[in-house]
Design goal:
Elements (H helix, E strand, L loop, with lengths): L4 E5 L3 H12 L3 E6 L10 E4 L1 H8 L4 H7 L1 E2 L3 E5 L4 E5 L1 H8 L4 E4 H11 L5 E3 L3 E5 L7 E5 L2 E5 L1 E4 L6 H6 L6 E14 L7 E5 L2 E8 L3 E9 L10 H9 L6 H7 L6 E8 L7 E2 L2 E3 L14 H15 L5 H27 L4 H17 L3 H10 L20
Parallel strand pairs: 1-2, 1-12, 2-8, 5-14, 12-19
Antiparallel strand pairs: 3-7, 4-7, 5-6, 9-10, 10-11, 13-16, 13-17, 14-15, 15-16, 18-19
Helix pairs in contact: 1-5, 1-9, 2-3, 2-9, 7-8, 9-10
């Protein structure tokens, strides 16, 4: 019997994970990426225990664990450095069976590419869906080299997905949150503790990486499309330069051109399905989300594993939508709520928030862990045919 043929549009993390997961299950896969590959570096990302379990499903979980920086104890602070709540790395490990690890996006992309090394990757080659197909007809994509058909198309073409707009033209599409985010990686001259700081100017996060580097991210309320008149490093200094050490030092150590900035957008409403015909939407193409729970890449990798599994079951892409639509919509909502809490505009509301966080944090050391349970306590589908839908109960 000939191999089933799949085309993946987009070679970001979600597309790479889908290619690796499908190839592991015997599919013949081709990837098309409209830009150069690899793309720009300069940002880090968290692999939560749910994502590590998903990576285990196609054999790269231990590779990521071995190359990433395992996060130590940390916490949530005010701009003056006082703690609102503390977090325990040991407690995360004990509760979920895995730590939270962080690595560069480019490093994870290279690991995923190696996992699908025999999958042809056509970089600088846009591909668009021209026919979603159905039970009787293959799906078709159009490339610069002509039309290609396949039993499956995986559209992992990002936040501004052309495939999503083609498949669901009646959907209202993206809405801007009114939030913007900055990211950069810098060599750390002193020890940096994992954590976030919340204040009137916005949010700053510091995450140690391997090789004595630090991933720095920040977010704030800002008009859509606004950019600094000089450079984004100077903008970060204006907003956060008087916050506790080592925030100013890290900003000053960055290279202005390496500071990435982008506005945060979400879908105006969840999609009615994550597939149409023989086309599956995956990652940011299916459910773009705010970054405040660190779940964007994690959910894309979950998507890839569940998709590959569902295609071997009786329901196919219907099973994929059933397994993923509710869960990802819930993670999108939770991520938005966390962003709204972190970026409160009212000083009175921020004072009430901080008082509540200090009080709850003093009463219980595992408050943050309890908040993570609905998101992180997920298990990939098993080989016996059971498709995961939503949160799995912890076996302990």
């Amino acid at each position: 019997m000939s191999e089933r043929r799949a085309i993946v549009i987009g070679a970001g993390l979600g597309g790479l994970a889908a290619a690796a997961a499908l190839r592991r299950r015997g599919w013949a896969v081709h990837m098309y990426e409209k830009g150069p590959w690899p793309g720009p570096a300069g940002s880090g990302l968290a692999m939560m225990p749910n994502a590590l379990r998903a990576l285990d499903a196609f054999g790269v979980g231990d590779t990521v664990r071995g190359l990433a920086a395992i996060q130590g104890d940390g916490g949530l602070r005010r701009a003056d450095g006082r703690y609102l709540a503390r977090t325990s790395a040991a407690a995360v490990q004990a509760r979920f069976g895995d730590p939270m690890v962080v690595l560069e996006r480019a490093r994870l992309a290279a690991i995923l590419r190696d996992a699908a090394a025999d999958v042809p990757l056509h970089s600088g080659a846009p591909a668009v869906v021209v026919d979603a197909g159905d039970a009787e007809r293959a799906a078709v994509v159009r490339t610069s080299e002509g039309d290609e058909d396949a039993e499956l198309i995986v559209a992992a073409d990002g936040v501004h997905s052309a495939a999503r707009a083609e498949l669901f033209p009646e959907h209202p599409g993206l809405r801007q949150t009114g939030w913007t985010a900055w990211r950069f990686i810098v060599a750390a001259s002193a020890a940096v503790q994992t954590g976030e700081t919340w204040g009137g100017a916005g949010v700053v996060g510091l995450v140690p990486l391997a090789d004595d580097r630090t991933y720095f991210y920040a977010a704030a309320v800002a008009p859509v499309g606004q950019r600094a008149a000089d450079d984004e490093r100077a903008e970060l200094l204006r907003r956060f330069g008087d916050w506790h050490a080592p925030i100013r030092q890290l900003i000053e150590s960055s290279v202005p051109d390496a500071v990435l900035r982008g506005d945060i957008a979400e879908l105006a409403a969840p999609l009615p399905a994550l597939h149409r015909g023989r086309v599956a939407l995956l990652g940011d193409a299916a459910h773009p989300m705010a970054p405040f729970l660190g779940q964007g890449a994690c959910q894309a990798i979950e998507d890839a594993v569940v998709l590959a599994h569902a295609l071997d079951g009786p329901d196919g892409l219907v099973g994929y939508t059933a397994a993923r639509r509710g869960r990802t919509a819930d993670v999108v909502r939770r991520s938005h709520r966390m962003g709204a809490l972190a970026l409160l505009r009212s000083p009175v509301a921020r004072t009430l928030r901080d008082t509540f966080l200090r009080t709850v944090g003093s009463l219980s050391s595992d408050t943050a862990i309890r908040e993570l349970i609905p998101v992180v306590d997920w298990r990939p589908p098993m080989a016996d045919g059971a498709v995961v839908s939503g949160v799995q109960p912890d076996p302990r």
